[in-house]
Write a structure and sequence with these properties.
The protein has one domain: NADP-dependent oxidoreductase domain (TIM Barrel). It has nine helices and four strands; from the N terminus they run αβαβαβαααβααα. Strand 2, helix 3 and strand 3 form a beta-alpha-beta unit. It holds the Pfam family Aldo_ket_red. InterPro entries: AKR_Detox_Biosynth, NAD(P)_OxRdtase_dom_sf, NADP_OxRdtase_dom.
């Protein structure tokens, strides 16, 4: 942290951040930074998508509490939410996701999600990828997304998501099919209901 602090103080970087840390690790670094009078992390780079909402349990609450930004990597879940994959088209034997399934996706739950994404995309006359990215851009904790387009047409399509504002009904439908199951201690009805 001292080395990163030196970079900020010398003007070589404006802000520092972390990538792929757990919430407790971010809080520990925040405490150390505060205790030693060092610059603290201003942002985190984490995996987040409609197919992978795990950071909502621990990381997003830390980011909000510490007023940190969130830069999302793999917002289309390694291409799973690009519109390419369906129950009927899971890619060929040479497909990257069939060779290296990363980030991991619960495919059965994912196909239900893709069905809803396709319905919303069709009604809006746009792509599945744009709707998946627009959902992320509608999340209060998200500062920006890091897209990994391979071709110019994919990049153009991804950039088109920035102009889409999903309505409450669309957000609710996507939330319902992608929502995480409560984990302890949030599955305790008293805590779970209080948190909502």
């Amino acid at each position: 942290m001292r080395a990163l602090d030196d970079l900020v103080r010398s003007g070589k970087v404006r802000y520092i951040g972390c990538s792929n840390l757990q919430g407790w690790q971010m809080m520990k670094v925040s405490g150390i930074s505060r205790q030693l009078g060092l610059h603290a992390f201003q942002t985190a780079q984490s995996y987040y998508s409609l197919a992978g909402r795990d950071i909502e349990r621990d990381i997003i609450p830390v980011l909000q509490d510490q007023k940190m930004g969130l830069l999302v990597w793999s917002p289309l879940a390694g291409g799973f939410l690009s519109g390419k994959y369906t129950r009927d088209n899971q890619g060929g034997a040479d497909d990257r996701r069939n060779k290296f399934d990363f980030p991991p996706v619960d495919r059965e739950k994912g196909y239900v999600l893709i069905d809803v994404l396709q319905e919303i995309a069709k009604a809006r006359e746009t792509s599945v990828a744009r709707i998946a990215l627009a959902w992320l851009l509608n999340q209060p904790a998200v500062t920006s997304v890091i897209v990994g387009a391979k071709r110019p047409d994919q990049l153009r399509d991804n950039l088109g998501a920035s102009g889409i504002v999903l309505n409450e009904e669309e957000l609710s439908r996507l939330d319902q099919v992608s929502r995480l199951q409560p984990e302890y201690p949030l599955w305790n009805p008293a805590v779970y209901l209080e948190d909502r």
